[in-house]
Amino acid sequence: MRILYVAYRYDYGHQDRGPSFEHSNFYESLVAMGHDIDYFDTGTLLAGLGRDAMNAELARRAMATTPDLLFACLTNDELDPDVVSGITSSGIPTFNWFCDDHWRFESFTQRWAPCFTSVSTTAASALPKYAAIGYDSVIKTQWAAADSLYRRRGLPLRYDVTFVGQCYGDRPETLQRLREAGLDVQRWGTGWDVRFADRVIARLPVIGASGGRDRLERIRARTRCSQESMLEIFEQSRLNLNLVEASQGGEPQIKGRTFEVPACGGFLLDGRTEGIEEYFEPGVEIALYDDAEDMVAQAKHYLGHEAERARVAAAGHRRTHAEHTYRARFAAIFRTMGVS
Predict the structure, then answer these.
(1) pLDDT tens digit sequence for 189-242
(2) Domains of the chain, with CATH numbers?
(3) Per-residue CA distances from 267 to 155, 259, 286, 310, 325 (Å)
(4) For the whole model, what pTM was predicted?
(5) Alpha-carbon distance 215 to 206, whole Å?
């Protein structure tokens, strides 16, 4: 299938941060499926052309190449709704993967969904909201793992408890509680070294204008790890922790980590979320915690029972590669859309 692929190539458009999530997971999986991809890198084109010229180029390319499918993953309002609607109206099937319906359906998704032939959501709670706006071409799907990237590498165990993810909400207090219980916890991700004073200083008009904001971003970035390091951490951790609260409030949600960690052969201690049992059998393929106290108890149990821990990790790895890859997700979506 000839696909016009519309998404950021680099992490939020910053080339120095490396490939975006969409590139590593969506693009690479579509290529692995054998599709012919015409890459429309919205981040680079937006920076180079500006929004209006970029959207004009998108319309021109779509009309000139008439792809079998336009596949998009919107970040914000980088596209023009009229341009997308025009491509859809021309008869080219269009699709968008919505990432954040748990918390920004009202402010974002409901404006964009009608522009596309079909869209997908990972949030079961969003389905009644789509119905309320009269949009009936939503496909319920779920995060997964790109099987060519998230895989075992044969690395030895190195860490006890790890967490890879951004610092927000009560995550610092959660990890501190594990440490106070005597567990050795390592963490990586944006923002872990930022202090309250750093944020205050960056907001001061004189300091902010003279490089204070750039300084804050450097502090935020210095606890990030590379994609390759992250994959190694997943496999080399006796216990990978996944904290499931949404970044902007709302209900706990299944996240990409739920599938990425087991795909790498790592043991996953995940927060209990609605529908998780559809994807893994708790206690057999992954472990689940109900609250902070249960998290500590579960972590201590599995760290103290190595054979059981290894058995659960192996079962989760098998289930993920058998059922929860993006190749499988996309194949199901394309069947539902009637494109191939």
Answers:
(1) 998 888 767 776 777 775 655 666 778 788 888 898 999 999 999 999 999 999
(2) 2-143+325-337 (3.40.50.2300), 159-189+224-323 (3.40.50.2000), 193-222 (no CATH)
(3) 14, 11, 7, 7, 18
(4) 0.92
(5) 13
